[in-house]
Amino acid sequence: MSALPPSGETAPARARPPTLRAALSSSDNALNTVRLVLATLVIFGHVFPLGGFDAVVAGPFIYAGWHGAAVEGFFVISGYLILASAHRLALRAFLWRRFLRIYPGYAVALIVTAFVTAPLGTI
User: Fold this and answer.
1) Is 52 left (phi over 0), alpha (psi -120 to 50) or beta?
2) Which of 30, 41, 82, 104 has the most CB atoms at less than 10 Å from its CB?
3) Predicted confidence (pLDDT) per residue in 78-119, tens digit
4) pLDDT in tens, 10-45
5) Domain range list for the chain
6) In whole angstroms, what is the distance from residue 16 CA to residue 50 CA?
7) Any stretches that span the bilayer, and where are they (predicted)?
């Protein structure tokens, strides 16, 4: 028996596997989980030296440089996700959404710094 279809019939079309872009274009991917893990490593990288933990606890983590690699990985993945978002939207809509996402938090941090944190420096 041959693998070819009888004459006059066409072979069934094979389903193409999804491309990497298609697989990662939805929010059903694991990139946000990876970003969360990397952000947690960055936080630990700052907490250990600032928290006064001894070198026995902090040593393997800090001296292995994991927090530095976590920063780079976080920025690479975030850049990829932002670029994917920019490709889905028109430039003006993308920039407006980025502004609305970043500016309110920046304004609150600026106000807290100016009116709460800065006066504490004079105490």
Assistant:
1) left
2) 41
3) 998 888 888 888 999 999 999 999 999 999 999 999 998 888
4) 656 677 777 766 666 666 678 889 999 999 888 887
5) 30-88, 90-123
6) 51
7) 36-63, 69-91, 103-121
Q: In sequence order, what DSSP letters do the residues of 42-82 get, joined into one string?
A: HHHHHHHHHTT--HHHHHHHHHTTHHHHHHHHHHHHHHHHH
What is the Cα–Cα distance from 42 to 69, expressed in whole angstroms?
9
| Buried/exposed 48-77: b ≥16 CB within 10 Å, e otherwise | beeeeeeeeebeebbeeebbeebeebbeee
- Is the pTM here over 0.70, yes or no? no
